[in-house]
Recover the amino acids of this structure.
Protein backbone atom coordinates (compact mmCIF):
# COMPACT_ATOMS: atom_id res chain seq x y z
CA UNK A 1 0.00 0.00 0.00
CA UNK A 2 2.85 2.42 0.78
CA UNK A 3 4.16 2.12 -2.76
CA UNK A 4 0.77 2.96 -4.25
CA UNK A 5 0.39 6.06 -2.06
CA UNK A 6 3.42 7.70 -3.68
CA UNK A 7 1.77 7.53 -7.08
CA UNK A 8 3.67 9.56 -9.65
CA UNK A 9 5.70 11.55 -7.11
CA UNK A 10 9.10 10.03 -8.11
CA UNK A 11 8.31 10.69 -11.76
CA UNK A 12 7.35 14.31 -11.08
CA UNK A 13 10.47 14.86 -8.95
CA UNK A 14 12.65 13.33 -11.67
CA UNK A 15 11.14 15.53 -14.37
CA UNK A 16 11.48 18.60 -12.15
CA UNK A 17 15.15 17.80 -11.60
CA UNK A 18 15.72 17.39 -15.35
CA UNK A 19 14.02 20.70 -16.13
CA UNK A 20 15.51 22.79 -13.33
CA UNK A 21 18.89 21.04 -13.08
CA UNK A 22 20.61 22.98 -15.86
CA UNK A 23 19.15 26.27 -14.59
CA UNK A 24 20.38 25.95 -11.01
CA UNK A 25 23.69 24.20 -11.65
CA UNK A 26 26.96 26.09 -11.86
CA UNK A 27 30.05 25.39 -13.90
CA UNK A 28 33.33 25.10 -12.07
CA UNK A 29 37.05 24.86 -12.46
CA UNK A 30 38.60 21.47 -13.11
CA UNK A 31 42.28 20.62 -12.72
CA UNK A 32 43.40 17.51 -14.61
CA UNK A 33 46.72 15.76 -14.13
CA UNK A 34 46.39 13.05 -16.78
CA UNK A 35 48.60 10.09 -17.57
CA UNK A 36 50.24 10.19 -20.98
CA UNK A 37 49.06 7.65 -23.55
CA UNK A 38 45.70 6.06 -24.21
CA UNK A 39 44.31 7.34 -20.90
CA UNK A 40 44.74 10.91 -22.12
CA UNK A 41 43.46 10.19 -25.61
CA UNK A 42 40.32 8.61 -24.14
CA UNK A 43 39.67 11.63 -21.93
CA UNK A 44 39.63 14.22 -24.72
CA UNK A 45 35.95 13.71 -25.59
CA UNK A 46 34.87 14.02 -21.96
CA UNK A 47 37.00 17.14 -21.49
CA UNK A 48 35.45 18.74 -24.55
CA UNK A 49 31.94 18.01 -23.23
CA UNK A 50 32.80 19.51 -19.85
CA UNK A 51 34.11 22.66 -21.52
CA UNK A 52 30.94 22.98 -23.59
CA UNK A 53 28.94 22.83 -20.35
CA UNK A 54 30.80 25.85 -19.02
CA UNK A 55 33.62 24.32 -17.00
CA UNK A 56 37.06 25.92 -17.05
CA UNK A 57 39.61 23.15 -17.51
CA UNK A 58 43.33 23.35 -16.76
CA UNK A 59 45.52 20.40 -17.76
CA UNK A 60 48.79 20.03 -15.88
CA UNK A 61 51.39 17.94 -17.71
CA UNK A 62 55.16 17.43 -17.77
CA UNK A 63 57.02 19.12 -20.60
CA UNK A 64 58.27 15.67 -21.71
CA UNK A 65 54.75 14.46 -22.48
CA UNK A 66 54.24 12.57 -25.73
CA UNK A 67 50.54 13.14 -26.40
CA UNK A 68 49.40 15.98 -24.16
CA UNK A 69 49.50 19.16 -26.23
CA UNK A 70 47.73 22.52 -26.34
CA UNK A 71 44.02 22.21 -26.99
CA UNK A 72 41.26 24.60 -28.00
CA UNK A 73 38.98 23.59 -25.13
CA UNK A 74 41.42 23.56 -22.19
CA UNK A 75 44.42 25.47 -20.86
CA UNK A 76 47.68 23.52 -20.79
CA UNK A 77 50.26 24.24 -18.12
CA UNK A 78 53.54 22.35 -18.27
CA UNK A 79 56.30 21.90 -15.75
CA UNK A 80 59.92 20.77 -16.22
CA UNK A 81 60.99 17.20 -15.49
CA UNK A 82 64.51 15.69 -15.47
CA UNK A 83 63.94 13.43 -18.48
CA UNK A 84 63.20 13.86 -22.18
CA UNK A 85 60.35 12.81 -24.47
CA UNK A 86 62.63 10.11 -25.87
CA UNK A 87 62.83 8.48 -22.42
CA UNK A 88 59.04 8.37 -22.14
CA UNK A 89 58.70 7.07 -25.70
CA UNK A 90 61.25 4.33 -25.05
CA UNK A 91 59.29 3.28 -21.98
CA UNK A 92 56.05 2.99 -24.00
CA UNK A 93 57.75 1.10 -26.83
CA UNK A 94 59.43 -1.40 -24.50
CA UNK A 95 56.13 -2.01 -22.74
CA UNK A 96 54.53 -2.92 -26.07
CA UNK A 97 57.38 -5.18 -27.15
CA UNK A 98 57.44 -7.16 -23.91
CA UNK A 99 53.87 -8.34 -24.44
CA UNK A 100 55.06 -10.57 -27.28
CA UNK A 101 58.10 -12.10 -25.57
CA UNK A 102 58.01 -15.79 -24.66
CA UNK A 103 59.39 -15.64 -21.13
CA UNK A 104 58.59 -17.86 -18.19
CA UNK A 105 55.90 -16.76 -15.77
CA UNK A 106 58.48 -15.73 -13.17
CA UNK A 107 60.43 -13.65 -15.72
CA UNK A 108 57.23 -11.88 -16.78
CA UNK A 109 56.36 -11.12 -13.15
CA UNK A 110 59.83 -9.69 -12.53
CA UNK A 111 59.76 -7.58 -15.71
CA UNK A 112 56.28 -6.30 -14.90
CA UNK A 113 57.38 -5.41 -11.38
CA UNK A 114 60.36 -3.46 -12.72
CA UNK A 115 58.18 -1.58 -15.19
CA UNK A 116 55.62 -0.67 -12.54
CA UNK A 117 58.43 0.49 -10.28
CA UNK A 118 59.87 2.64 -13.07
CA UNK A 119 56.42 4.04 -13.88
CA UNK A 120 55.82 4.95 -10.25
CA UNK A 121 59.20 6.69 -10.17
CA UNK A 122 58.21 8.72 -13.24
CA UNK A 123 54.91 9.65 -11.60
CA UNK A 124 56.67 10.62 -8.39
CA UNK A 125 59.18 12.77 -10.29
CA UNK A 126 56.31 14.43 -12.18
CA UNK A 127 54.08 15.15 -9.20
CA UNK A 128 56.31 15.63 -6.16
CA UNK A 129 57.79 19.01 -7.19
CA UNK A 130 54.30 20.37 -7.80
CA UNK A 131 52.84 19.23 -4.52
CA UNK A 132 55.98 20.14 -2.55
CA UNK A 133 55.78 23.71 -3.89
CA UNK A 134 52.28 23.99 -2.47
CA UNK A 135 53.15 22.40 0.87
CA UNK A 136 50.88 19.42 0.28
CA UNK A 137 53.43 17.12 1.91
CA UNK A 138 53.55 19.22 5.07
CA UNK A 139 57.32 19.61 4.78
CA UNK A 140 58.86 22.27 7.02
CA UNK A 141 59.78 25.51 5.32
CA UNK A 142 57.35 24.99 2.45
CA UNK A 143 54.69 27.46 1.43
CA UNK A 144 51.26 26.31 2.57
CA UNK A 145 48.12 26.54 0.42
Amino acid sequence: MAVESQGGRPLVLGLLLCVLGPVVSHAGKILLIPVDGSHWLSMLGAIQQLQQRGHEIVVLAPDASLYIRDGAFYTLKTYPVPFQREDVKESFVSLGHNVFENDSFLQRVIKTYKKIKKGLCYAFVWLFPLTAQQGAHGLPGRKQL
